[in-house]
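Here is one chain, start to finish.
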Amino acid sequence: MDNFRDTKFAKKSKRGIHKVIFGRTMFIVLLILIQVLIILALFLWVNIYSRVVYYIFFGFSVLTAIEIFSNDSDPTVKLSWMLVVLGLPVFGSIFYWFARLDVGHRKLRKNIANVTEEGKKIQTPPSDVIEDISVNAKSLSNRSNYLINVGGYYPYKYNKLNYYTFGEEMFPDFLEDLKSAKEFIFLEYFIIKEGDMWDQVLDILERKASEGVDVRLVYDGMNEFLNLPHKYPRLMEEKGIKCKTFDPIRPFVSTEFNYRDHRKIMVVDGEIAYTGGVNLADEYINIEPPFGVWKDNAIRLKGPAVATMTRLFLECWNSREEEYDFGDFIKRAEQAKKYEEEAGYIIPFGENPLDKDKVAEQIYLEIINTAKHYVHIMTPYFVIDEVVSNALIYAVQRGIDVKIIIPHIPDKKMAYAITKSYRKRLVKVGVKFYEYLPGFVHSKAIVSDGKKAVVGSINVDYRSFYHHFENGVYMYKTKVINEVEQDILDCLKECREDTLEIVNKEKLFVRMIGAIGRLISPMI
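Its structure:
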């Protein structure tokens, strides 16, 4: 049996390697590499053969440095760009302005802004809940007002929540809820891979589409780049499933590798919604996980708060359209059954990297800065700016118990080296890091004082806080918060604490990679 599995895995790996080498992915990578080499060669030629042009570019670099210093970016981002511009005066400046002007996303930025405004107009503010918070939950009022003002993300009461500590724990309920659909199914995922998990989901989607259910699927363009064939939307259409790729990767040098749709959303009939860390691929339910045990989490919502999840999906669905079609899906979701026995408030929200509001980071900072007893975090990546770092330090100095669970077996060695590079400063002041020994932590959660928590697609890193479309569920005084905390406590039993002694023994090579990675991480 083991030989069969080994042979099966070897064949799968061979097919995967063949696909990478001879497929569309390698073609795009080669085209981009050729373009970069041509640009570099051009600048080298200018430097060698034209001193006048060189001085012009040098002056351009000085002006670029002044612009970087005077803009309103995060200080860590400024420092990273300054090092690039000073180290590579010509190419670095061009690279900066290339990113600053957002080549490849200007139209998308405009479309997203317009479609978001349209979605906000359609969703009805739950005025009774907002009034209730101002009277009975005053400590939530400022947070609620912030999320309403920046994104139209409204608070809701009377929602039934289920929390799942592993993807395989969630999956049976996920399938049953898909089977229960009578009107529509919306799916928006960062990663979809063909395999056992997706086969089971696809079988239900195809059957439901044949029954007349409106089935819609969106996946990120990076997924098309790495996992699925370019023609996959057409294949889905043949099965009756409406399918779109969000921001497909094209073979040109641009900023398209940023602003990925990292969200995980499933909505059924405006009554049930799922989110969390779980994508639609086998490793997320621990079928042949590549990095030991795959620790993930998810949350299921039933109730009026599903309206926001429905809206987030429809904003993505319409993001490339000239005319927006929201139908009456949001209005139907607002009429979802209320579960009046359920205590507390929840606020589903989205993160849009194309506006100036860093919603996810602000929510995490608010939880850290207002903690009275503890802040516990699970995240696969930990790549932070100075603001978050200082907030964690200040929390410890106030006597707050700060614990952060990270993987022991990484999926990306560069990101892991960068994650480890933050430990020394924080461990010295009392922040506690723990490595999940059984394998890879992909769960995304923050919980504090048994009163506040967020579960969603958000990692504690630059990409989630600055570059990705994300979503999360903010919870206040709900029963599920204790389940999130218990999940973290159970994980800690299988963790090793990274003491200062362990941190100081880190390999020199890993330290060097981490230090270099920290320089460029704010830019990518």
